[in-house]
Amino acid sequence: MTASTLFEKLWRAHEVVPETADRPAVLYIDLHLVHEVTSPQAFAVLRSRGLPVRRRDRTVGTMDHSTPTRADELYGRVPIRLESAARQVRELEKNAAEFGVELLGIEHPDRGIVHIIGPELGLTQPGKTIVCGDSHTSTHGAFGALAFGIGTTEVGHVLATQCLLQRKPRTLAVNVTGRLAPGVTAKDLVLAIIQRLGVGGGTGHVLEYRGATIEALSMDERMTVCNMSIEAGARAGLVAPDETTFAYLQGRPRAPQGAAWDAALAAWRGLRSDPGARFDRELAIDASNLQPMITYGTNPGMSVGLDEAIPAKGGDAIHAKALEYMGLAAGQRMRGQKIEVVFIGSCTNGRLSDLRAAAGVLRGRRTAPGVKLLVVPGSQRIKREAEREGLDRVFVEAGAEWRESGCSMCLGMNGDLVERGAYCVSTSNRNFEGRQGVGARTLLASPVTAAASAIEGRVADPRAFLS
Amino acid sequence: MDPIRTIRSRTVVMPRPNIDTDQIMPARFLTTTTREGLGQHLFADWRYDASGQPVADFVLNRPEAAGCRILVAGRNIGCGSSREHAPWGLYDYGFRAVISTEIADIFRNNSLKNGLLPVIVDEATHGWLIEHPGAEVTVDLERSALGLPDGREVSFPIEAFARYCLLNGVDELGYLESQSAAIRAYEAEAGK
Ligand code: SF4
Q: Which domains does chain A have, with CATH numbers?
C-alpha cells in the first residue's frame, strides 16, 4: 500500500460514500458539539420536517458564547442582563429537551467553552471526526481527530443524518524544529506560522503540525496551535497522537476505560503519517529564533515580535487602513504601547496551564493603575481547579476580575466589551475590527505577555518577569 | 429552495481583502433564532456611525448601490467565524452573488447552501471588476460563466453537486436522507 498521511487515514475511515467528480463524499461524523448561537435555526429545520436527532449519543450541547460570566446572573440570582442572550440560552434548553440531546447547561459543573470541554471530558479522541458550528473546532485536531467548523445548515445535516457532504481538502505539512526560548509560547509559535502563511494561506487545506518542536509540546499547547489553524484559512489542524496524548486522555470521564481503553490505544497508535507520505504543500519553521509575538493590525496575520517595529508597506492601502483603525504607525515598536484592558481566557488560552503561566507572572504584583484585567477560565472544571490551586487569589490580589467560564471578551456577545478606541491585550484568537466591541483595538498575545502588560500598563516583554 | 440559473446586475465593489464575517455580521446580531431580517445589520459597523447615522461614503450607502445584487470583494472574503449569519445577511439584503479571487472555505460552503453564489475569478478579471464599479455583469450558473459588459465570458469553478442542487432547487438534506441505507451499513460495519 502507498504511504498515507494522517489526514488520509482519518478521511478514509469515515467515508460512507466516497466522492466522485459530480458527488461529494458522504462523511460520517463521530461527535457533534452544539452551542446556543449556531444551533437554533438547525433545530427549527428538524422540527419543520418532523425529523429526530439521528444519533443523540453522538451529540453534546453546551452554552458558552452569550452566557454571562458573573455568578449572580449565571445562577439565576439576578436575571441575565442581555435579553437576547437569555433568549438563546432558553432556546437551546428547549431544543435539547425536545430532541433528547445531552446538554451541559447553564448550571452544569462541566459547562464551558465547547472546544475546552470536549478534550477535558475525554469526548475528544484520536481518530474521530468532530464538528461543531464554530470555526475553532480545529482545536480538537490536537488529538489526531479530524475536526472542523461548519455552518448552521450543516449543523442541521449532522443532527438529522450524522453525516456531511464534503469535498476532500488538500494537505499542508507544517514542519517545526528548534526549541522555543524561555518566555516564548505555543501562542507565539502559531502567530508566527500564521504570519508566514497569511490569513488565506491555508484555504482548502488541512494542516498537519509535525517535527520535534510539536512533539515536545503539551496537549494544552498543541490545542493552542491547532485552535488558530483557521486563522490561516485552513479547514483543520492536526497533530499525530502520541504518548503525551494518551497520558492526557487516560482516566478522563468520557474516555474509554478498561479493555476498551487498551483496544482504543492499539488503534490510536497507527494514527500517524506514514514515512514517505506526500503532502500537497510543506512549510518549514525554525522555532528557536522566535520571540514573543503580538499583533498590531486587524487580522491575526499582522503580527510582529516584541522587539520588532511595525513594518512600513508604502502604497498598501489596506495596511494603512488597519493602522489607522488601530491608531498605530509604521516604524513604531509595539513594546511600550499604552493599553487599557487585558483579557486572559478563550478557547485559545483559557486552559489551566495558561492561567498558571499568567499567575506566575502576576504573583505578588499589581496591575498598573487604570488597567482593567479580566480573567475568564475556559470551563467550570478549570475554574474549580484554579481555585483549588489558589490562582484566583493571585489574580484578585493583582487587581483582576475573576469570572465564571465562557467566551466572554473574546467576542463580547455576552456584554463583556472593550470600549471604543481602547487597547486590549487579549489571549484570544481574533483581532478583527470591532471583535471585542465597536471600535475596540485588540492586540493578540500569549498569557505571559498579557500578564506582563497588565502590570506595566503597556505592552511588555514577559521575559523580564521570568524567575 | 428556488432554482437559480442566471443573475444579472450592476456590481457593488468593496476592494479590501480579508473581509471577515465579523465585519459582514457583527457578533451582537447573532442572537437571532431565525434566518430572516439580518440584512438591516449587514456591515453594520461600516454602514453606520457611532450615533447610528449612515456613513455617507460607505459604498452601500451611495445611491448607485441601490438594487445591486452582485458584490465584488477583495481577496479572501468571508474569512474568520463560521457564522452562517453572514451569508444570511448578504442574501436578506439582496445580494445573490459574491465575486472574488479567493473565498474562505466555510463562508463559501455556507453561501452555496443559501442561494448566494460564490464566484471565483482570475486576478485580471478581478482587477477589471474593481476598476469598474457598477458594471452590469451576468453570472450564468448553467454555464459556470461570468459575462462582462464587453461580451467577454470568464468561466468560474463551482463544485458540481452544489451547482446541480442550485440549478434544480434540490436540497442537500433531502439528498443526505436518501443515503440512509449506506449510512446504516457504514455504522454496522464500523461498529458505530
Ligand atoms: S472563545 Fe472565542 S473563539 Fe473560542 S469558541 Fe468562544 S467565541 Fe469562539
A: 6-166 (3.30.499.10), 170-244+265-288 (3.40.1060.10), 293-465 (3.30.499.10)
pTM over 0.95: yes
Q: Tens of pLDDT along A349-391?
A: 999 999 999 999 999 999 999 999 999 999 999 999 999 999 9
Mean pLDDT of chain A: 96
Q: Is A435 in the pocket of ligand 1 (CB under 6 A)?
A: no
- Determine whether the interchain pair B192/A200 forms a contact, defined as Cβ–Cβ distance below 8 Å: no
What pLDDT does B20 receive? Answer: 96
User: What integer is the mean pLDDT of A67-81?
Assistant: 89
What's the gap in Å between A408 CA and the centre of ligand 1? 8
pLDDT of residue A318: 87
Q: What's the whole-number mean pLDDT along residues A322-345?
A: 97
> B30 and A37 in contact by Cβ < 8 A?
yes
pLDDT at A1 over 70: no
Mean pLDDT of A142-146: 98
- Judged by a CB distance cut-off of 8 A, whether residue B164 touches chain A is yes
B160: chain A residues, CB-CB within 8 Å: 21-23
Residues of chain B with pLDDT below 70 are none
> How many interface pairs between A and B have CB atoms less than 8 angstroms apart?
168
Domains and CATH numbers, chain B: 6-190 (3.20.19.10)
- What stretch of H or E contains A441? strand A441-444
Region A332-346 average pLDDT: 97
CA of A325 from ligand 1 middle (Å) equals 23
| Ligand 1 contacts CB of residue A428 (under 6 A) | yes
